[in-house]
Design goal:
- The complex is a heterodimer of chains A (114) and B (202).
- By secondary structure, chain A is mostly helical.
- Chain A has one domain.
- Chain A has a three-stranded antiparallel β-sheet.
- The model of chain A has no long low-confidence stretch (mean pLDDT 87).
- Chain B has 202 residues and is of the alpha/beta class.
- Chain B has a seven-stranded mixed β-sheet with strand order 2-3-4-1-5-6-7, with helices on both faces.
- Chain B is globular and about 50 Å long.
- The chains are: A mainly alpha (114), B alpha/beta (202).
């Protein structure tokens, strides 16, 4: 992967923000609910890159990797786009990673591969 | 860097995560690689937070840059569920990153190499002391051979009897699936009867 060097420091891009409105985990899934080419063309390069890549459902970590942006910046950009409903943050259907229904699904899925 | 397989296109798609930990060179990358449906994504573009005081600005003046090499992979369980595997960066200085990776995880698989058990001491300590996340320790069978009895490994790692210890060959996808299965089953045992909120990672 080619190393990307920042033209500006990341905190300029995020306006100094490091916190997000909602907690975004590295595996939280994100997607563009309806793609708007005009909206995309008006975005800053970093936001645009993320918006384009999120046309396919991807995790925050995958977006960070494909966009070559640090996880912290990725989180802020995702959060900004989600605030205006340009990005959809997929809900956690189970409420907790320790939800028994989730664990059962994982167990059954992994058994098929074992 | 591009994923060969796309995720199911559903707004209801949700995700889970298992953390793969262990010292440097114990087979975390191979483990993720052997079962992931996408080539493992190795990125050095990560930092713990945007608030890092020193960021990469220009080639040549990045002596204090924090770069983190880590791998992650993906496994689609069904039309609405995808499991992510995150290999932890090995070096202790990345421990703040471990907290971030463990948040919201189902459990952790700590890999150990019997030829260099000490390399995994730090990871075992972390999961025993610094997080409530359920974990399983797995001896990686380099060359497919178990060179030490598991009881001896347990003793050498001073592992609590409550922590499952197994062996697996990380090059073999079904062997990795069994190890991940052990993680899920251990979490089911650990969390059975308690409300989901009781056991949350810090």
């Amino acid at each position: 992967m080619p190393t990307q060097y920042w033209k500006v420091r990341p905190y300029v891009l995020t306006g100094g923000r490091t916190r997000t409105r909602q907690h975004l985990l590295v595996h939280t899934l994100v997607s563009v609910p309806y793609y708007d080419a005009v909206f995309a063309s008006g975005l800053l390069p970093e936001s645009r890159s993320l918006y384009e890549h999120a046309r396919k459902t991807r995790s925050v970590a995958e977006l960070s990797a494909v966009c070559g942006m640090s996880l912290g910046v990725t989180r802020v950009v995702v959060d900004d786009l989600a605030a205006t409903d340009r990005l959809q943050i997929h809900r956690d259907n189970y409420g907790s990673a320790f939800d028994y229904r989730l664990l059962e699904r994982l167990r059954d899925g992994l058994r098929q591969l074992a | 860097m591009t994923a060969s397989a796309s995720l199911p296109d559903s707004p209801l798609l949700t995700s889970a995560k298992i953390v793969i930990a262990g010292g440097f060179g114990v087979g975390k990358t191979t483990c993720v690689q052997s079962i992931s449906e996408i080539p493992p994504i190795n990125t050095e573009a990560w930092m713990t937070a945007a608030s890092e005081t020193v960021d990469r600005l220009d080639p040549g003046i990045d002596k204090t840059t924090t770069t983190v090499a880590m791998d992650f992979g993906r496994l689609t369980i069904g039309g609405d569920l995808v499991l992510y595997l995150f290999g932890t960066p090995g070096q202790p200085r990345f421990w703040p990153m471990w907290d971030d990776l463990c948040r919201g995880a189902v459990g952790a698989l700590v890999l150990a190499d019997t030829r260099r058990l000490a390399a995994s001491f730090a990871a075992v300590n972390y999961f025993e002391q610094d997080t409530d996340l359920p974990f399983v320790v797995c001896v990686n069978l380099f060359d497919g051979v178990l060179t030490h009895h598991l009881d001896d490994v347990r003793e050498a790692l001073e592992l609590s009897p409550a922590v499952p210890l197994l062996a697996c060959d990380v090059r073999d996808p079904s062997s990795v699936a069994r190890a991940l299965l052990a993680v899920v089953e251990h979490t089911m045992t650990r969390t059975a009867g308690s409300s989901p909120r009781v056991l949350t990672a810090r």
